[in-house]
Write a structure and sequence with these properties.
- The protein is 74% helix and 0% strand.
- It contains 8 helices and no strands.
- The chain has helices spanning 10-41, 47-60, 64-70, 78-97, 107-130, 136-142, 146-171, 188-223.
Length: 224
């Protein structure tokens, strides 16, 4: 979602540090809850219900980052940032929350682990970069862990969306059926399928971009 590079606005820097620190704490809390639940229960069944409120809060708060882009607090595209955040928010609200049966499927622990680890690394990287004290190990984690976390998260998201399809179709969830006065129909079922298909061009593009950035960023970090 872009690297919030330091600006000449100290008030903006303070705000961005606070935001990124808050997100780091939030995702760390969620990750600890996930690990403790798995250790205590030996299963992922019921895990989502244990942390669903926190997930909804911190994932949805990500939309604030679109405002950061628009206000030029960070050098990222507001459109790309919006789309990246929406892909996850859709899974949280439009899939798992809307189709409770998905909460106990295998995609959930995959995406929870991937999301938590990726966001802890990402937000702590941003926060320390703003303070000009980002250690090399954190830079390395930021540009190395994605090799596993991105595919893991995408797999979890796609599995969750796929597992929701029968229930969405059966219940006509969020759909507008014909006939009606507006002579208009809308099928959420096909929207979910279309969203899954977007991953085909989207994931390789982002993955290859991160790979191309890795050697350049790590080389520059070593010099400092």
């Amino acid at each position: 979602m872009g690297n919030p590079e330091k600006k000449e606005n100290s008030a903006g820097d303070i705000y961005l540090f606070g935001y990124n620190a808050f997100q780091t704490i939030g995702w760390t809390y969620i990750f600890i809850k996930v690990i403790l639940y798995a250790l205590a229960n030996g299963t992922y069944y019921g895990m989502w219900d244990e942390i669903s409120t926190a997930i909804k809060i911190f994932q949805t708060l990500g939309y604030i980052e679109v405002a950061h882009c628009i206000l030029k607090l960070v050098r990222s595209s507001p459109i790309i940032t919006f789309l990246q955040i929406t892909s996850r928010v859709m899974v949280v609200w439009g899939i798992v929350t809307s189709v409770p049966e998905v909460a106990n499927t295998i995609g959930i622990p995959l995406l929870l682990v991937a999301w938590c680890m990726a966001e802890i690394i990402r937000y702590s990287y941003y926060a320390t970069t703003i303070l000009n004290c980002c250690p090399y190990i954190l830079v390395w984690c930021r540009y190395t862990f994605f090799f596993v976390l991105y595919p893991l998260g995408v797999t979890g998201e796609l599995l969750s969306m796929y597992n929701s399809l029968p229930y969405i179709k059966q219940r006509n969830l969020y759909s507008i059926l014909m006939p009606n006065k507006a002579n208009f129909s809308f099928h959420y079922y096909y929207i979910v399928i279309a969203s899954m298909l977007v991953y085909i061009p989207g994931f390789p593009h982002l993955y290859l971009y991160m790979i191309s950035q890795r050697s350049k960023v790590l080389k520059g970090a070593k010099k400092h």
